[in-house]
Design a protein that fits this description.
Blueprint (H helix, E strand, L loop, with lengths): L2 E5 L6 E5 L20 E3 L30
Antiparallel strand pairs: 1-2, 1-3
Organism: Desulfosporosinus youngiae DSM 17734
Protein name: Putative regulatory protein, FmdB family
Length: about 70
């Protein structure tokens, strides 16, 4: 199951939840104010082997970060 970030439209708190794929948050309850119906946020992710998009990990020195030219 993926981790999603949800925000409360009432108090603004952001929480991270382990949810089923595609969870939208309409039944989730805010842990701070009790509001029902949180909004899913887009959150960042990391990819092993890529170091900040400048190459790294198993990439060759000339890699631009997308590994299309080095793998």
């Amino acid at each position: 199951m993926p981790m999603y970030e949800f925000g409360c439209p009432k108090c603004g708190v952001v929480i991270t939840e382990l949810c089923k794929m595609g969870e939208k948050g309409e039944r989730l309850v805010c842990s701070k104010c009790g509001h029902i119906g949180l909004t899913r946020h887009i959150s960042g992710f990391s990819s092993p082997g890529i170091s900040g998009g400048t190459g790294g990990g198993s990439c060759s020195p000339g890699c631009s970060g997308n590994c299309a030219g080095c793998h």
